[in-house]
Amino acid sequence: MKITISGAHNVGKTTLAEELLEHLPGYTLEAEPYYQLESSGYDFSEDPDAEDFVEQFNYSTQLISESGDDVILDRCVVDLLAYLHVLDPRRNIQHLFEKAQTIMAEIDFLVFVPVEEPDLIPAHQIELPKLRAQVNDVLYDWIEDFGVEVIKVSGSLSNRRDQVLAVISS
Fold first, then answer.
1. Where is the NadR/Ttd14 AAA domain (predicted)?
2. 151 lies in which domain range?
3. Listed residue (35, 34, 37, 31) closest to 13, CA to CA
4. Is residue 122 predicted with pLDDT exceeding 90?
């Protein structure tokens, strides 16, 4: 299976992906496109920038198409598109949305990690809280539009892990 973990920043995507990796023998983990691009020398803007998200989106589509089976992808093209939309709401992203729909057909399962109420992350630890909330809202609106099985997880890390593993085993 190709599993992608989706959500805004500071919701626990990477932590969940790493936890799932420990319980899914034979799976590999693909780090967020941001970190992969950064390690290859891409110079990101200091503040979130729409063009940086276009670059990550393109990298993510390539990553999905080139990855094999039994992979967990930390972050999703849908997330990156949501960030782009929030940062540049006047930009026409229809062609990117269609590209995301096409590439998401290669995903077997999408795990959506939303911002919870009450928030599990202490407010002082959240970078760019307004951006995080806006992206979370867009993801809630869009997450079902890509023709992929979606599970929305909540609760503690072990609860989230168990929710995902239950769906995978069924």
1. 2-160
2. 2-169
3. 31
4. no
